[in-house]
Design brief:
By secondary structure, this protein is mainly alpha-helical. Helices cover about 55% and strands about 5% of the residues. The chain is globular and about 80 Å long. The N terminus and C terminus are likely disordered.
Length: about 500
């Protein structure tokens, strides 16, 4: 019989795993089966519940592969309730927050700083965290042009001192708070912004999102503007503006795997078929990069991949579940031993490049097929299921198949089964599970699959709370250790970096 202490530890472990799944998958946006408000209310409750009851673990989740939306919410929650933490907790939280902010996209951080200001969080520690982050930016002049309102809000909130004179920070201060006072700027981007008001040639020197507004003001043709702006566009901006189709020299394989899968699924079937070699090669290259040293180490791998109609996602997350499944398909092919991978789509399609959201979700039938022995009569070493968990053709068959398989045919657990779910279930405060005995983890990017498989084993019930806490401690140490290494590298190359960013 479990002691009360053990029961409490198990409840805590289950709560932390539940929150981790939510923080990985949920973004507060509409999903296929739930609206944005439901998602937001469900997340609000989970964040408050975990922060109040397990503050140390709440902060430690910043070291996990959670999405940027929830990372920013955790940072805001920790800063807003700093009075509830001990001095030691605040020190650890400060290091975790700094490390996480360094990994967030700058636009997300500036948006977070705006929320900090609106919430009236203005204690000394918060200002120090914001000042340190601003000081670590490689080119604050670039940020002032591209994220002007965000930089201005942050500078006001932390009382950033912008001295008079010709110093770079003085120019940024004049640009933000005294526009038009200086006849010219030494910083090239600041001066390009000044000249772009009356000179078309300066528009192409600006970041793409800023240049778009000036191009419209000058009445520039879209094609001409895109051609001039292409050298300064990010890969994502090129994809969004269809510049890749016009510039075949763009390296698609350099895109992150899940982002590339989203791009592929957005193409019409005719383009996918016509560019089959290019697109398939790019997906496989991105998958090999994501697998890293684990390539070929998973043995025989069978996968059940959900391409049912619900994988179309929502208007805010269009085709996201299907893109995760497509990316996982290519990643699992690389992780498996050579020639030992088998991917089964719920629709029965055999051409991964031409998948589309269609039909019901017969997970049970596909799980039966996936558990069949492969060549040589050997069962798979791993069965990975990528689905939102709505098994409906017939309902509940997948869970029953897996229960009988584990109880009768594979009690020794020769085949490791894991379910990764890209969709947050707002009503259940978790991702939907297929069966109680099947470890389930939330997933947002296929690149995180190897790490999520490790987390999922804690949900199987064969490891205790102590192992979960030890795992989180290791992740925190690794997370902070990587941050410290980055800081040392930055110090060694400070002069070279500063010279490069200002040129």
């Amino acid at each position: 019989m479990r002691t009360p202490e053990n029961s409490a530890d198990l409840v805590a472990a289950e709560d932390v795993l539940l929150f981790a799944n939510a923080a990985i998958t949920a973004t507060g946006q509409r999903e296929f089966r739930s609206g944005a408000l439901d998602q937001q209310l469900s997340l609000d409750f989970l964040h408050a519940y975990i922060r109040v009851n397990y503050r140390r673990l709440y902060a430690a989740s910043l070291s996990l592969d959670i999405n940027d939306h929830n990372a920013a919410r955790i940072v805001l929650g920790l800063l807003e309730t700093a009075g509830e933490a001990s001095a030691e907790e605040r020190r650890t939280e400060g290091r975790l927050i700094a490390a996480r902010l360094a990994r967030l996209p700058p636009q997300r951080v500036y948006r977070l700083f705006g929320e900090v200001r609106r919430a009236g969080i203005n204690n000394r520690r918060t200002r120090a965290i914001m000042r340190d982050w601003l000081a670590a930016r490689p080119d604050l002049g670039h940020d002032a042009v591209k994220y002007r309102s965000g930089v201005k809000t942050a500078a006001r909130h932390v009382h950033l001192r912008c001295p008079q004179g010709a110093e770079p920070l003085a120019e940024v201060g004049a640009f933000l708070f005294r526009p038009g006072k200086l006849p010219r700027y030494e910083h090239p981007l600041l001066d390009a912004w000044r000249r772009a008001h009356y000179e078309q040639g300066a528009v192409a020197e600006l970041p793409f999102t800023v240049a778009e507004g000036f191009a419209a003001r000058h009445g520039m043709k879209r094609e001409t503007f895109l051609k001039r702006a292409a050298p300064r566009m990010t890969r994502l901006e090129r994809l969004r503006t269809h510049a890749v189709a016009q510039r075949p020299d763009v390296d698609l394989a350099a895109m992150p795997l899940t982002r590339l899968a989203l791009y592929v699924l957005a193409l019409p079937f005719e383009q996918r078929a016509a560019r089959r070699t290019e697109l398939t090669g790019a997906l496989r290259t991105a998958a090999r990069r994501a697998a890293g040293k684990q390539a070929g180490s998973w043995g025989r791998v069978h996968a059940v991949l959900d391409d049912s109609f619900s994988s179309s996602g929502s208007g805010q997350k269009r085709r996201r579940p299907l893109a995760v499944a497509l990316a996982c398909h290519h990643l699992l092919e690389v992780l498996a031993a050579p020639g030992a991978y088998r991917g089964l789509w719920t629709s029965g399609r055999g051409d991964a490049l031409l998948v589309r959201p269609w039909g019901p979700t017969p997970l049970g039938m596909r799980v039966l097929d996936a558990l069949e022995p492969g060549p040589g009569g050997a069962a798979p070493d791993r069965l990975v299921i990528v689905s939102d968990g709505w098994d409906n053709a017939p309902a509940g068959l997948a869970g029953e198949v897996l229960r009988v398989w584990r109880a009768r045919l594979d009690p020794g657990r020769r085949t490791a089964v894991v379910h990764v779910n890209p969709v947050y279930d707002a009503d259940g405060f978790d991702v939907r599970r297929l069966a109680a005995g099947v470890p389930t983890a939330g997933i947002r990017d296929a690149e995180d699959l190897p790490a999520l498989v490790e987390i999922a084993r804690f949900a199987e019930g064969r490891t205790g709370a102590a192992e979960l806490h030890a795992y989180l401690d290791r992740r925190v140490a690794l997370f902070l250790g990587e941050r410290d290494t980055e800081k040392e590298t930055e110090k060694e190359t400070e002069n070279e970096t500063e010279k490069g960013t200002m040129s």
